[in-house]
Write a structure and sequence with these properties.
Elements lengths: L7 E5 L3 H13 L3 E6 L2 H11 L3 E4 L10 H12 L5 E5 L4 H9 L6 E5 L6 H12 L3 E3 L1 H10 L9 H10 L5 H8 L3 H14 L8 H13 L1
Parallel strand pairs: 1-2, 1-3, 3-4, 4-5, 5-6
Length: 219
């Protein structure tokens, strides 16, 4: 098997230390940060100039220090729906996150909380998965989405909710089984129950199944 190709990354982060740290991590894993910027307008300009393989951006940055980074990412996705975007933030901007996930059925997008990204290998894996068209959503973001939609999610058992959260991270049945210390057959049974209770048709494609669940949670 050939090695995965290096990625060309545009990074947007207004904190200099964080920007340098993320750049160092990406470089360590063989990727090229073609430009690292500190505000939303510069992010848009950098993407237009470099046509990167992926954008990694903070949410809150200049000029308004609100959700400028996330709004810029959404605008960039409107211009180019194929552009992979990974958001890293200290905050959960639920409405804007939902809008980002809505873009092109949540393909090639991610939303991670900074204080939960403690393993650089996991972070690098998330970057690669999003660049390859996958979806990576922090479990805490999933919990916020769940809290906004109580019906018919109230029909799910506590175990089914755990499985649903792991499904939304793009985890395979085997990975879920290992994490919950149950059999793969038990995971399959839980997933079938979840899809039935949420009126979602079963699908062998893990990514499509995640998209269906996320679409339901955002509705």
């Amino acid at each position: 098997m050939s090695e995965a190709r290096p990625l060309r990354v545009v990074l947007a982060e207004d904190g200099a230390l964080m920007r340098d740290g993320v750049t160092a991590v990406l470089t360590r894993f063989g990727h090229e940060v073609v430009e690292a910027v500190g505000d939303a307008p510069s992010l848009v300009a950098a993407v237009e100039t470099h046509k990167p393989d992926i954008v990694v951006t903070d949410v809150r940055m200049p000029p308004t220090l609100t959700d400028d980074g996330l709004r810029a990412a959404i605008a960039l996705r409107e211009r180019d729906p194929r552009l992979p975007v990974l958001v890293i933030s200290q905050y959960i901007e639920t409405a804007s996150a939902g809008e980002l996930l809505d873009s092109t059925e949540a393909r090639a997008v991610g939303y991670l909380l900074k204080d939960r990204v403690i393993d650089v290998t996991d972070f690098a894996d998330a970057v690669r998965r999003v660049a390859d068209g996958g979806t990576v959503i922090d479990p805490e973001v999933i919990r916020h989405l769940l809290s906004r939609r109580r019906d018919p999610l109230d029909r799910l058992t506590p175990r089914e909710r755990e499985v649903l959260a792991l499904m939304a991270q793009g985890r395979s049945n085997a990975s879920i089984a290992q994490d919950l210390t149950v059999s793969a057959a038990a995971v399959g049974k839980h997933i079938n129950g979840i899809l039935a209770k949420l009126d979602l048709p079963p699908d062998a494609d893990v990514h499509r199944r995640v998209l269906a669940v996320l679409a339901f949670l955002r509705s």
